[in-house]
Amino acid sequence: MATSKSLAQEEGIFTGTSGGGILAAALNFAKTAAEGSNIVAILPDTGERYLSTPLFDGIGADMTEEEKEIAASTPSSPPPPVPLPSATDDSTSFVKENIAKHKVVIYSLQYCEFCWTITQFFDKINVPYTQINIDSFEYAKDNMGNKYRASLTDMTECNTFPQCFINGEFIGGAADACIKWKKGELQPVFKAAEIDFDGDYEGDPFEFLPKWVSRSIT
Fold first, then answer.
1. How many distinct structural domains can be found in the chain?
2. Which residues of the chain have pLDDT under 70?
3. How far is residue 19's CA from residue 17's CA, in Å, rounded to a whole number?
């Protein structure tokens, strides 16, 4: 973790815990390696998915004045959008069949913090669900994962994730589920679908949201 933080601060390389661990091992190995050795250390992922973990605990979600000044000093522009392929009959059938087959189905992305939010919340209240990560390697062939995404967008007019369906009804994403629970609107949906859940849960589902989001929602 210390090496990962040093990479970000000193080299501008944003990696996660495993990336820091790999480089730390490589640096340690270099101390005893023969002179002239070439050592390759591969950092397997970036640091975005670790923002809400202990790796960056203690780093404020809001930018300091110094950070704002640095950010403002460099012109920037958003990346160009990545176009989705068109939905197909097969991709739409896949999406609809899973919605019909499972009482609770969550279409999600593997490293999406909000997708973790809804699964952690449902786990907490003991709601069984089927999770389909459309960005998994399983759906990489023929770009099927993105075709499923296109089908979902056509159906829900929503292009963010997760997308949760209960008894065939689209209820929205993670924040939607949390807000509906707090308003007492999600519990009747579970009951109508005859889905068992922990009705005694008295916690705040916002606790499962990423820290940088939960502090701004009231």
1. 2
2. 212, 214-218
3. 5
pLDDT on residue 73: 93
Angle of the 174-182 helix axis to the 113-124 helix axis, nearest 10 = 40
**Looking at the chain, which runs of residues are DSSP E strands?**
104-108, 130-133, 163-166, 169-172
Q: Which of 24, 43, 72 is a domain's end point?
A: 72
DSSP state for residue 194 in the 8-state scheme: T
What does the pLDDT read at residue 61? 72
Alpha-carbon gap, residue 177 to 211, rounded angstroms: 17
Q: Give the model's pLDDT for residue 129.
A: 97
Do 61 and 109 belong together in one domain? no
Residue-range definition of the domain harbouring residue 122: 89-214
What does the pLDDT read at residue 15? 93
If 0-12 CB within 10 Å is exposed, 13-18 middle and 19+ buried, where does residue 152 land?
buried
Has residue 171 been placed in a domain? yes
Q: Is residue 83 in some structural domain?
A: no
What is the structure's pLDDT at 71? 87
Q: For position 28, what pLDDT does the model report?
A: 95
d(CA 154, CA 170): 13
